[in-house]
Design goal:
four-stranded mixed β-sheet, alpha+beta, 4 strands, 9 helices, about 190 residues
């Protein structure tokens, strides 16, 4: 099923700078991730630099400042898209649930969702809510624990979240994987 055109959402979305300035939660951690980002792979860096020659791409990101995955991943996305000169806007999840509901992850509202469009708003691809090696744990958990009302569901979820944090690693450990996955996505559009 193709996704609806997002040209109208581009006009109401906010800039990355407005998102960062307006954060009421996790602001310091987000800014640290944005400031401390470094390219670890020269080929990846060159790939994103070469995207500056494309003027047909845009990115719309569904995000919320309370979300840990947003804090870990979106500073990396912002920096990569800054390098690539891909115009980027942010839709706040709570204000744009209509869009969020078109990008559910396993039936739930998980952010961030990075949407790549052309300049006309046609959706070309998406990434999120987290790197694949981290998301694998949640996928397995949901398959093995479909009953959210089970008495041990919350305890098991806490264990999965702990495992996800371990897979994210310390500091910028997961940044290279986010970059690699974005590169793979953009290579196909």
């Amino acid at each position: 099923m193709s996704k609806r055109n997002l040209a109208d959402k581009w006009e109401v979305a906010i800039t990355p700078e407005q998102f960062m300035e307006g954060m009421t939660q996790n602001k310091e951690a987000f800014h640290d991730g944005h400031t401390l980002f470094n390219w670890t792979d020269l080929e990846d860096h060159e790939f994103f630099k070469l995207l500056q020659h494309r003027d047909d791409l845009r990115s719309i990101i569904i995000a919320a400042d309370w979300c840990g995955d947003v804090v870990r991943n979106i500073p990396v996305v912002f920096r990569a898209f800054e390098e690539a000169a891909i115009p980027t806007r942010v839709l706040i999840l709570e204000e744009h649930q209509d869009v969020m509901d078109e990008y559910l992850t396993m039936g739930g509202r998980s952010v961030p969702i990075v949407i790549i469009t052309d300049t006309g708003g046609h959706v070309l691809g998406q990434w999120g809510p987290r790197p694949q090696h981290v998301q694998e744990l949640m996928v397995s958990f949901r398959q093995e624990n479909p009953d959210r009302e089970a008495p041990d569901y919350k305890d098991k979820m806490a264990e999965v979240r702990k495992g996800m944090m371990e897979r994210y690693g310390e500091g910028s450990a997961s940044h290279a994987m986010v970059i690699r996955e974005l590169r793979e996505l953009l290579s196909g559009v």
